[in-house]
Design brief:
Length: 401
């Protein structure tokens, strides 16, 4: 994929949302230079479930594809100068620190934009660049709580429930990549760069746009979560995840009478479509009771025969064998930077019928330090001196301990 070929991005990102956004842009052809501390960015040193693959954090493996890595002490005078030089050669600067952190590193966004009106400066923050919460720590679970997502997830007879993945960080990453692409397109038309700001808080709200809009505009509701086994507060009868005789099955929207025909529930024959919401607890209880008596495959076949949308509930172990995901090549297995095979989640979009290739596996810290420094005019002796003094780090081990 070469849509962004020729675009250079200086990425000062850490953790998840920022690195994931930069990875999306790298997949589309941008030259992303990941500028990390000498001991590595957060995502290199902390891993989901504490798991490392041949010494590589899975957080890095999930966000480091198609990027070059430079290890740099940006707090040192020489490091600040190198960072400014990298920025001056970039089309886009990305970061996801708390507001003010980049200014303390000598990379104040207002000054950078004044020096280069074509520059695009993109920041992901927890709560926005200003306002009463701007200095609060932004993290996915906290934002699920604050945005209403946890309060509106789960059963009515249970507690607020967080989603089982970091959905807000991922959505913020997609929004950030989209906004940067839009800003680059505007620059092509007008010659003007500018600032892109994405907050986890607004991403969390945007993720729930349909249900929040309904709620704030007076949609009928009896509480923040669906009653009984109904999946959400705004869902009709039958809509939810139900136990079968040997597993679980998700049932989508369908008229009560159709559900009755599909599953053999005579009590639903006379329930009009208009009562699907008003009598949803009754409908759902009947559907749940019947599904508990049927094997999953048999229940799915019955629903398919009546064109009722449904899906078997799959675990991550089962995703590998999902025929559609296999067809789409969603889980490429590659030899990682250490030589150990790693399974990645591939780029989620196809362009002209194909997904972007993995040009660079997630790199070792400082793998391209020498190359990047040479590109900005430093000689080999200068690079060796900087490495010896711990200003830069190289994957060959020439960084100071």
């Amino acid at each position: 994929m070469d849509a962004l070929q020729g675009i250079r991005i200086a990425s000062f990102n850490h953790f998840l949302a920022g690195p994931a956004a930069a990875q999306l842009l790298a997949d589309m052809g941008a030259d992303v230079v990941a500028i990390e501390p000498i001991d590595g960015a957060f995502q290199r040193n902390w891993a989901v479930a504490g798991h490392f693959v041949d010494g590589q954090s899975v957080n890095h493996l999930s966000t480091g594809r198609n990027k070059r890595s430079i290890a740099l002490d940006v707090k040192s005078p020489e490091g600040k100068a190198i960072a400014r030089s990298l920025v001056s050669r970039s089309d886009v600067v990305m970061e996801n620190f708390r507001p003010g952190a980049m200014a303390r590193l000598g990379l104040d966004p207002e000054r950078l934009l004044a020096d280069d009106p074509r520059l695009i400066y993109a920041a992901v923050t927890g709560f926005g660049v200003d306002g009463p919460f701007s200095q609060r720590p932004g993290q996915d679970l906290l934002l699920q709580a604050m945005s209403g997502l946890a309060a509106h997830t789960g059963r009515a007879d249970g507690p607020p429930t967080p989603v089982g993945s970091v959905v807000i960080d991922q959505h913020a990453a997609a929004l950030c990549a989209m906004a940067i692409a839009g800003a680059l397109f505007r620059r092509e038309r007008t010659g003007r760069g500018g600032r892109v700001d994405v907050s986890l808080l607004q991403a969390a709200v945007d993720l729930q746009a349909e249900s929040i809009t309904a709620w704030l505009n007076g949609a009928p509701q009896s509480g923040p979560r669906g009653p009984g086994a109904v999946a959400t507060w705004f869902s009709p009868g039958g809509y939810g995840v139900h136990a079968t005789a040997d597993g679980f099955l998700a049932v989508s929207m369908a008229p009560p009478a159709t559900l009755g025909r599909a599953l053999g529930i005579p009590a639903l024959d006379g329930v009009p479509d208009s009562d699907s919401f008003a009598r949803r607890e009754e409908v759902t209880a009947l559907v749940a009771e019947r599904l508990r008596t049927l094997p999953t495959d048999a229940a799915a076949a019955r629903l398919d025969a009546e064109s009722v949308w449904n899906a078997v509930v799959e675990t991550y172990d089962e995703l590998i064998d999902n025929p559609q995901l296999r067809h789409l090549g969603s889980f490429p297995v590659i030899d990682g930077a250490t030589g150990a095979p790693v399974t990645l989640v591939g780029h989620p979009v196809r362009y002209d019928g194909a997904a972007p290739t993995v040009r660079l596996v997630p790199q070792l810290l400082g793998a391209q330090t020498r190359d990047v420094l040479a590109e900005i005019g430093l000689s080999d002796p200068q690079i060796e001196d900087l490495a010896a003094r711990g200003v830069v780090g190289c994957a060959d081990g020439s960084a100071a301990p």
